[in-house]
Amino acid sequence: MTGGGDGRRLSAVVIQRLLIVMASGLMALSAACSASAPAPNAVHTAADRGSPIVKHRHAGAHSGDITLAFAGDVHFAGRVARLLKDPATTFGPIALALKSADFAAVNLETPVTSRGQQQPKTYHFAASPLAFVALRDAGVDLVTVANNHILDYGQTGLADTLAAAKAAHVPYVGAGVNAAAAWAPYVVTINGTKIAIVGISQVAELASSWVATARRPGEANAINLNRTLAAVRAAKRLARIVVVFMHWGTEGMACPDQNQLSLAPKLAAAGASIIVGSHAHMLQGSGWLGHTFVAYGMGNFLWWENSFSTATGLLKLTLHPHAPLSARFIPAVVSGTGQPLVEHGAAARRALAHYASLRTCAGLSASPSAGAATTSSTG
User: Fold this and answer.
1) Quick one: which of 289, 334, 296 has its CA closest to 315?
2) Block mean pLDDT (10 aa), the chain, length 379
C-alpha cells in the first residue's frame, strides 16, 4: 500500500524518526513497568525463523468454538504517532473486540527502525518500537509484515523490525533472514486445534529486490509462486486450519483485481482454509470460494492520514467443531484520530449492507460449495 490517495508525502515522518531513538528507550521502560503480561502465545522467535513457531493456547469458551479476528492495515505515522504516547490506549475502544477473540492478527504497514537507507520509492515509513507495545496491549497476537513497506529502509530497517518484534514478544510472519524464514508459518494450537498462519505479499513494486532468497533477508512475495504454494502445502501438513494473510489488490478498488482472482484459487487448492487480504485501502468482499473462506481486503484499520475510504471493520471468524466456520463483520470507521471506531445503529446497518454487497464483484458465495470439505475446527 502507498501512503494514501491524495498524493501527499509524509512530512511527519521526518519529525517522527528524530523521536524514535528516545522512543526506543521508552519502550524498554514501558515493557519493564507494564502490568500486563505478554500474550499467551508470545514467543522468543528463533534467530533464523526457518522452522515454524508452535505455541499452545486454550480458548475461553467451553463449546469447542474458536474465534479468530482479522483487521487490515495498521500504521503509526502522522496522527497515529501521537497516540503512541500511551501505547495501552493507542487503538482505542476497538481493542476490546480484538481482545475478545481467541486469536487476532493485523497487517503491520511499516518497518520499526530509526536507521537504514530509503529505498527508491515514493513513500517511506518508520515507527517507534512502542508500536509493538501498542499492538500487544490492544490484543493483537500476530502481525504479518509481508507488504510493500517493510523494507522501506532496506535490510537494516528489516533487521531492526524483526528484532523489535522479538523483544516485544509479538510473533510475525511474512519476512525473515532468508526464504525459509520468510515463508515459515506461525502455528498455534487452540483447544486442541492447530492453526497455521502464513504471510505473503503480491505487490510487484521492488519485489525482485525485496523477496527473500536462500542467502538474502526479505519478504515472502508471490513473485516466487512455487515457493508460495509450497509454503501453503507445508503449512497444511502441520495444521488443520491454514490462514494465508495476503497483501494484494489495486489501491482504491473495492473489487479484487485479476491478480487476486487468479491467485486465490491456487492458494485454496494448495490447502488454504482462510485467506485474508490487505493493501487496497478499501474494504473488499468476503465469502466462500469452494471450501475456502476468502476476505479479499480489510481496508485501513489504524491509519495515519486520509485515504480512499474511512470504511473499515473487524472480521471475526468462528471455527465450529462440526460445522463450517461462521463469519461476523463488525463495521467501523477510521476516525479523525486515526483510530477505528465501531459503528452503531443505522450507520452500522448501512455499513453491513454495503459490505455484503461487495461479495458480488468478488465472485464469492454466501456458503461453502455443496459437497466440498468445510473449514471447521475438526476437519
Assistant:
1) 296
2) 45 41 40 36 43 61 86 96 96 97 98 98 96 98 98 98 98 98 98 97 98 98 98 98 98 98 98 98 98 98 92 98 96 97 98 98 93 63
Residue appearing with cell numbers 515454524: 52
Per residue in 119-131, pLDDT tens?
A: 999 999 999 999 9
SS3 241: strand
Q: What gap in Å lies between CA 98 and CA 93, rounded to an integer?
A: 10
Give the span between the Cα atoms of 351 and 353, in whole angstroms.
5
Residue 258 sits at φ, ψ, to 5 deg, of -65, -35
> How are beta strands 323-334 and 340-342 bridged, if at all?
antiparallel
The cell numbers describing 166, all together, are 522479538
Q: Do 77 and 304 touch, CB atoms closer than 8 A?
A: yes
Burial group, residue 319, by CB count within 10 angstroms (0-12, 13-18, 19+): buried
Domains of the chain, earliest start first: 12-362 (3.60.21.10)
Judge if pTM exceeds 0.90: no
Amino acid residing at 109: E
Convert the pLDDT of each residue in 4-37 to its tens digit. 444 333 444 434 444 443 444 444 333 333 333 3
- The DSSP line for 270-321 is HT-SEEEEE-SSSEEEEEEETTEEEEEEE-EEE-SS--S--EEEEEEEEEET
**What is the spatial distance between Cα 376 and Cα 245, in angstroms, rounded to a whole number?**
18
Query: How many degrees, rounded to 5, is the angle at CA 268 between CA 263 and CA 273?
Result: 130
Q: What does DSSP say about strands 175-176 and 172-173: parallel, antiparallel, or unpaired?
A: unpaired
Q: Which three cell numbers stand for residue 6?
A: 491524495
